């Protein structure tokens, strides 16, 4: 049986954060502690904006090159989590958030967790599989009506039938 310590950590985290506030407040003062918390929140917002655009550019580059973008998607998710951890008041979450902003730490986390994560994409070695663009059928107003189908039955020469046969 496998025991997860995550629920225990999540229950203990507020107590650890309060203890961190007390320790830091005793060393640098209450006003400086509040200033550090506000500065980390602002840094989280700014880093999310800056790093988020960079990750989006790397994901696009991976897709344009025909490679699987799942690692870059995971990096993007970790950057969002890191920014949220920085925005949440507390020094322990700030330390974890700052560590997640470092690319070597994200690479290590990806190597550890990629076996447990499933990225469902419609991606092949040649690029994304999607609906072919040349199979679009434009109909005029008089090309289709429900009453015609009910009276005549299915039209075997319909372009909709030809799509299925191709």
Strand content: under 5%
DSSP helix fraction: 55-70%
Largest sheet properties = 2 strands, antiparallel
Apparent shape? elongated
Straight-line distance between termini:
52 Å
Total count of helical runs of at least 4 residues: 7
What's the count of strands? 2
Assembly level: single chain
Pattern of helices and strands? HHHHHEEHH
Structural class, by secondary structure, is mainly alpha
Task: Report the average pLDDT across residues.
Answer: 79
Instruction: Strand order, main sheet: write it out.
Output: 1-2
C-alpha Rg (nearest Å): 26 Å
Low-confidence stretches: none
What would you note in describing this structure?
- The chain is mainly alpha-helical.
- The chain has a domain at 11-124.
- It contains 7 helices and 2 strands, in the order H-H-H-H-H-E-E-H-H.
- It has helices at residues 6-28, 30-64, 70-87, 91-101, 103-113, 146-152, 159-165, and strands at residues 123-124, 127-128.
- A two-stranded antiparallel sheet has the order 1-2.
- The chain is elongated.
